[in-house]
# Entry
Amino acid sequence: MLKTIATLKEAGDITSINTLIPYAKTVGLESFMDDHGLVTVLRFRESNIGNYLINAIHGGVVGALLEHAGILHLLAETEAAVVPKIVNLSVDYLRPCLAADTFARGTVIKQGRRVANVRVVAWQDTPEKPVAAAHAHFLIGERSG
Amino acid sequence: MKPSGPLPELDNIKTVFEDIPHCKALGMQIIELRHGKGFMEVEYDKKLIGNPKTGVVHGGVITALLDTLCGVVVMSAVPENTPLATLDLRIDYLHPATPGETIRASAECYKVTEYVAFVRGLAYHDVAGDPIANCTGTFMLAATGFAPGKPPRKVKGKAAASAIAPREGGQPC
# Structure
């Protein structure tokens, strides 16, 4: 059977969703579960560098990690009927994101019928020293009728 | 007080941009650059797809395009060698990008103060009147990051990086 995001969500296999998404492979987005839930990782790659003076990762791909982590977190934690559609994303850049893997974890702040407000924090060494944080809105339900 | 000094040569900024690995990886190009305003584009490519069902590119591509262009435009609007760091970037996604079509972006730096530059931008296909995304961003000036005009210096390792990391603000650019 052809695997789709919907069938993987149905099976509870959120971490395999990345394998279906070409962009996730291009930039190196992966996921795993830990004791607190889903963690999304942006693997370090030379092609993700945005500042070659200090080998910092491009802010745009850090934004992509936060958005992607938000979507996967909603798929993992909620009964979203469709793949969440992003409405907006506001990224705060807190520390330089250097040449290493970057991790992100989402928290649903408020889930309504159609829209969810999600906060996502990204870190490298330790979650206590975040490199970036975002809040985002996603559409999570189809309009009925 | 605004930072003073001559504005950078636009060709120097283009050279800095052309060497950025992630911009090369996504295929970004500067179409036009003036002091305080610029245009860029990224061609559709299957490797950028975020929704395998529809073929629509991942939002991260639009984020990276707008983040880069905003940084380039701020760089062009402040005196040469002013180091920059992105403080924040907010993006509203207005409608999905059309699969197969080039994504273009425009941005302008509309205010520069002593420590902060303010920028806004749009992503669109053919006409800016029907945007895919709208963004606003702020950049910290006088952090340590890229400084067009200075020869690029390759620094390896965390100790070296922290020595020239921004004193304030977030992502050096």
